[in-house]
Amino acid sequence: QMVAKAPGHGVTAEQILRLRYFVDGEARSRWNFRKNGPLLSNKAKADTRLLTDLVGELGLQSLMVAPMTRGTEFQGLLLVADRENRVPFTEEDLNLLLAMAAQATVAVENMTLHSQLKRVNAQLQEFDRLKSEFVARVTDFGTLDGGQPFMVMEHLEGEDLGQVLEDGPMPVQE
Description:
Elements: E1 2-3, H1 13-18, E2 20-21, H2 26-30, H3 33-36, E3 39-41, H4 52-58, E4 63-70, E5 73-81, H5 91-129, E6 138-143, E7 149-153, H6 161-166
Antiparallel strand pairs: 1-2, 3-4, 4-5, 6-7
């Protein structure tokens, strides 16, 4: 399901909240964006490829819809409708929308990656805060050419906690 997000030029906030476009189900049987790619329609009300609820809710005359994909992953739809003075859309317009959809896809992915990076940085800062003489520091990690993971840690002197606990519970003072 694709859910409209504000702002939308010429569309009220209430209309945006009501807009839903289920990519599967009835919408998919009319036009499969995964299979067929973008859609251009200059007679939206009569176009059987479009959902009548979407066309009716917005009173659309013409529109272009470009899928936002990253590889095989479907991330959304970019829709442009009704030019000023009801000038019909052209293939050139659709090509421009496809380029914009590709850029929007990268922007969405960058935003997602930025959020993930912020979360990982916060975790690393917490780990850094927890450093002590009793916790070994990790100095490097990664994957070897054969696919085996590796981790390089500092060596700490002392007794193995597992062995100490085999002798029974430790006194509170220790």
